[in-house]
Design brief:
830 residues; mainly beta; Jelly Rolls; five-stranded antiparallel sheet; 70 strands
Length: 830
Amino acid sequence: MEHLLFKRYVNHFGLDLKSNDIVRDSKYASKILNAQYSIPGSIEKRKGYQAHGPTSGGLGNFTYNRFDPSTNTLAREFITVDQNLFKYTPTTLNVAYSGAGASATISIYFDTVTDQYRCLISEEQTDVLDYALGLGFDEVSPVTIDDLAAQINAITGFATTITGAITTPAALLKIVRAHELTTESIDLEAGNWTQVNSTVSNPFSSYYGVRHTAEDFENVSIVQINNCAYLSNGYDDVHKYDGQTFYKAGLPTPTAPTATIGASGNITGSNYYYKAQFIQYDAAGNIVEGNPTISATGYVPSAQQLVVTLTNSVAGSGFNTNCATVSGSQNNVTTITVNSTHTLKEGDTAYFYDAVTLGHVTREVLGVSGTAIAIAGSDVTVTDDAVISNNLRIAIYRNKTSAITPTLFYLVAEVPNDSFNATQTYNDNLADGSLGALFVEPVTDRSPPPKGKYLTTFQNLLVVSGSRTYPQAFYWSDSDGPEYFPEVNQDLIQSPNGNIVTGSGVNGPVLAAYTETSTHVISGTLADSNYRIELKSGDIGCLAHDSLTDIEGTLFWWSKRGPYRMTSGQIPIPVGITDNGGRIESVMNQEGVEDALLYQTKRITSINWRSQNKWVVFLPCESTTNSNRHSNSNSIVYAYDYSRDAWLKWTNLDLMGGIKEFGSEVFFQERRYSTAVTATNKHVLYKMHNLNDAWDYQDNNAAIEMVYGSAWEALDQPSVLKRFLEVRVMGLDQTGANTYTVTVQQEMNYQEDAPVAEFTMATAGGGYGLSAYSTEPYGDPSEGVARHELRRDRTRSMRVLFINEQEQTNCPITGWELMIAAPYRNEFKK
């Protein structure tokens, strides 16, 4: 019989689930689990992750790239949300060495023997501390960073400094390998969450209350525009985060002001009317104005004052009502004594009347106590009961004397909003000639944004859709600002199947709007209502707004048929195309699947992992335990390597709480039910490894199971018997863990999960295992080739599966060769 060599190392293109085993091209895999492709094209394990922060938020996260106007610097923040908003605030443990030793090293690592993280400190090659840190979560009394610091400080020559929360679990510190402290100290970092200032308790309580019961529950939608983050969930009002405070977007319309004739003064004339308007100077540098209202009655003073009554935005309204009232008159101070009911926070901008400058001033709040606030800048003089707001103002406008109903109004004053009282009065004693700037009437309505589940930014406008009241509608803001929503700025997405809006996203020059079964594009300009809505597909829709991802100008999303994409508003096409459709469309065929295996598509999450050239999509499966809805282990991640046009399948990743890039790191949050401490859902923060060594290949405290199945080999003759003789495996990529063992399973005759033979193939070389760390080039050189005989039954077809479940070990496979004994005669055999 003739011996043939089949070479399988030219290209690897991932999964093709749309083709059957007989016709599938050999460049595609028949099975992939937790594998990916290296830059040179070898098959290797996907990267693992480490627990990095405690459970908070977990109902959506976002990278907020805020420009700080006070310092003219970019201050990036990672935020997450549940019924409150939290921001990532790392805790650092600085470890320094001042001893006389020539060497002192520190390592934080996961110990597979004791199944926990450990801190190892060595001095002069002698271990002086080997301290168990636990896992950092699901523990009643975790070892804290403060506990670890105490252990290190007890060693002569070592000292620590903690910045941040000392109660942060020490096991959450990022892995570090043998850092040399005689060269420089090290900042070990773990994640933590700090609740952002808000003006009401639990501002997203309506949304949070249905998280376990609403079938269409989705993560919070978050976008950034005008240097603010805007958040919406469909149940509560749209909120904004300006880098300082979390509060309702937009401003209310005040009740019409009234006035009475007061004491003698400077105003003489007729037909005096007043207008009032809320104005918010936010912490991101924006000025937001509400709708003005006008008094119903004209006033006729004669050398008198006018006492104007204004309505305030009161505490509990959800707007930015942080406030204080001065307790006793105070001269030339920078620490102001205030009533104990005050709600100002450090970092707020205090707005109040200063008798030194004879006008209203703004000052940063440097610190607060129960009865005082410290402000930046020069001394101020304040009077008893004077109001200090967080730069929320009420603008008062008045006309000049007029014989008819006036049309021109001028600024009288901008007074601080008093959130502790429903109304306040202002004594107007300005003669007509002393009035301020002319009031420019808003051309359009400045009502706050409507409620909706989805936010998008398009043409520098904020777009809201997914209204629970009007589910086919979408709304867009006025060109004057993203918080102004005129009633006329709305339209309907009318699907041919009558479905509701399920998401929206920008695709180059157009806005894409989706239902579950249709794709629409909106072109033109929304700002001047010169637009058109066009149906692009009546069969392809989007299942989850959070699946919409822009990748290099192409919009990707997940539909009932699987993954689709669109460029510049063209007709949608599958992601990863074969001759008969998308290569993984069959994953959406779930007819007859039990509940625990059903994809809960409304809660799909995704990310463009730019540094890895991958679109990562999480398809959650759910269970309910003790009335808690949570993801379960049947959930799957499909990753599309768009640099190689390859689909990958990953497990043991729970991205249900959201996944985002922050700096050079990728973070995600789970939604897992835990009974370890309290019976509730957990939203532990995890960080994908980017250590570039063996530690990358570990899922926190679990090994990564990598499986790669070749295509079924039949020599294009699946009915003809042949013998498969040997396999030769090549692993030519040098990695930080170059000693590994591949388990090879041999299967025959298209019978999956029925191996007829199993053997292991070990590679040579040592990587970090044989040579001393840092004394050899990265990853020791090795031959990188192993061969083994196959079971030599006469068979019609055969495939090999490469398996590795070693902890903290990669398994690079550049390719393989099969030696096959071809049949002497091509004929059917009985």
